[in-house]
Amino acid sequence: MADAPLEQRIAALEARLRAAEDVQAIQRLKTRYAQLVDARYTRKGPKPAAEIEPIARALCQLFAPDAVWEAGGALGTCRGHDALLERFKTPTLQFSWHFFVKPDIEVDGDTARGSWDLFSPCTTSEGRAMWMTGVEHDEYVRLNGLWVHQSMKLDVVFMAPYERGWGPRPA
Asked: Which of 20, 133, 142, 170 could pair with 110 as two cysteines, CB 3.0-4.6 Å apart?
């Protein structure tokens, strides 16, 4: 590449820079999602509905208008902003704290795919402390110059009671 014409080298550098900036923007998107999802709770339980609604609306802005959010089981599937808003306005837990790690992001123009390992200590609506871990499989799209989620699918690896942990019971 060092022997290539200057214009070609600059174009290659610009493409690499854009790809790196896109990955960073997607990482910030996922960070913002975790911040907002967890902002619906205090250590004592969900915030009042009047405080949750603006958070839920901000969460919806992180998704394309026709996005799909799929968490399986009791959490279900939502399609589109109206369904997402209703889902995000109604926390199903007493508390959660999301840690997204090991991002694997591939950008292709104005679309991208990513997977994230998720670790989330949480408290059920019944008050039971749990450990939850899983993998989120995301698709992203650039809309009006900003990256948003096109789809988000959670595959739960385990949901284990805090006091027991996730390993086998000792003999």
From this structure: 142
